[in-house]
Structure formats: C-alpha cells, structure tokens
Design brief:
Elements (H helix, E strand, L loop, with lengths): L1 E2 L14 E2 L4 H16 L8 E3 L14 E2 L2 H7 L13 E9 L2 E8 L7 E8 L4 E2 L3 E9 L2 E10 L8 E10 L9 E12 L7 E10 L1
Antiparallel strand pairs: 1-2, 3-10, 4-5, 5-6, 6-7, 7-8, 7-9, 9-10, 10-11, 11-12, 12-13
Length: 209
C-alpha cells in the first residue's frame, strides 16, 4: 500500500495514512463494472426470471445491449468460439448479496448468443467469481431443450439462490409426430458466501421417460 506524504491533503487522507493500492486488473474490472451498469437496467423484483430469448421476443427484456467492442476482447477466453461481434450483450444486473453485484449477460452458445451467463463481482475483495451459464435454449435435428433460471433468496439469508428448470423435447421424425417431453428436471443451487462459486446444488426433481 502507498502512504500519504507530509502536509495538508485535499483527498480526505491524513498525513501518513495508507492510500489503497489498486492493481491494473482491479482498475480494469472497476471500469468493466461501470460499463455494464451503464448498459443494463437493474432488476428490482424479488424473484428474477432469466431465460434465453427467441429472435422474435423483442419485448421479453432478455436481448440486452451489445457491449463495447473494446470489452469483447475481455470475454474472448471465456467464449473461444466467438465470431466477429457483437457477441456479448448486457441484459441487467442485481445484487446477489452484500457487495456482490451480479450481471446477466447474453453470451455465445452452440449456434448463437443464446446463453444467459451470470457474472458476479466481489466488490469487497475486488475480483470476479467464476461465471456460469444459468439459462439457454437451442436444438439440433428433432431434439431441443430449454433451461430457465430464477434468482431468489429462498433461504432468507440475504443472498440470492439459483433455481433452474431444464426441459428436453423430441418432435419426432415426421411433421405428424407428436412432441414428447423426454426429460424435465429442476435444480436448486444455494449460495454459500464462504465458497468461490455458488456452493452446493440439490436436484429437486428429475423425470425421464
């Protein structure tokens, strides 16, 4: 840490008081947080439903705003299949817990930017928690799936937990075949502040035909 010199200061620090030292990475992280907040509105609901938007779902609020091309390079290592941008979109943000703003980003997935990723920044320790895709939807051939997420404090401990539901369908080989749900599962992931990630996950229901 740096210390202030002798004499009168205009920044509120007394002579000899330590000045917080910030690394280049921490300064860049702070700038990214400010950029994401400037693009995306805060979620104000107690329970926030996150889902992968369809192309014609402009009113659903999950498309987001494209981030700056300068910041796309930051996300490249996390999504190596990124084509020429825009690929990452800021959708919204909300407090996951004290000093833990969580940002919902629409990010590259199998075929397009259909993944909905949660990026949490630890303001106290000044670092990002490992990101995770919490919602997505796409298909291949006769199979398709949809993974939705809800961010809600289910345990009343001041931290939002993650509830997810995944449904898989098979539409059959011909246009007359009925659509069949082949899997339907729900998961709860409870936030544990002592862990670097979310904590522990419990499967609530798993039904397969």
């Amino acid at each position: 840490a740096l210390t202030s010199g002798c004499g009168t200061r205009d920044d509120g620090l007394a002579s000899g008081q330590e000045v917080p030292a910030f690394s280049v990475r921490e300064v860049a992280d702070s700038a990214l947080v400010a950029h994401l907040k400037s693009l995306s509105p805060p979620f104000s609901r107690d329970t926030v439903h996150i889902f992968s938007p369809s192309l014609n779902d402009a009113a659903g609020g999950m498309h987001g705003q494209a981030i700056s091309s300068d910041w796309e390079r930051f996300f490249q290592p996390f999504y190596p299949g990124m084509a020429k941008g825009p690929n990452v979109f800021a959708v919204g943000w909300l407090p996951i817990g004290p000093d833990l703003p969580g940002f919902i980003l629409r990010v590259p997935s199998a075929y397009s930017s259909s993944g909905m990723a949660l990026w949490i920044y630890n303001e106290k320790d000044r670092h990002w928690l490992p990101p995770r895709v919490i919602a997505d939807a796409f298909g291949d051939g006769t199979w398709s799936f949809q993974l939705d997420a809800w961010l809600v404090d289910r345990t009343d401990d001041g931290y939002r937990d993650l509830v997810q539901r995944r449904t898989d369908w098979d539409v059959g080989m011909t246009s007359t075949d009925a659509t069949t749900i082949v899997a339907d599962s729900t998961y709860w992931t409870f936030f544990q502040s002592a862990f670097v990630q979310w904590g522990w996950q419990m499967e609530g229901r798993g039904d397969e035909e």
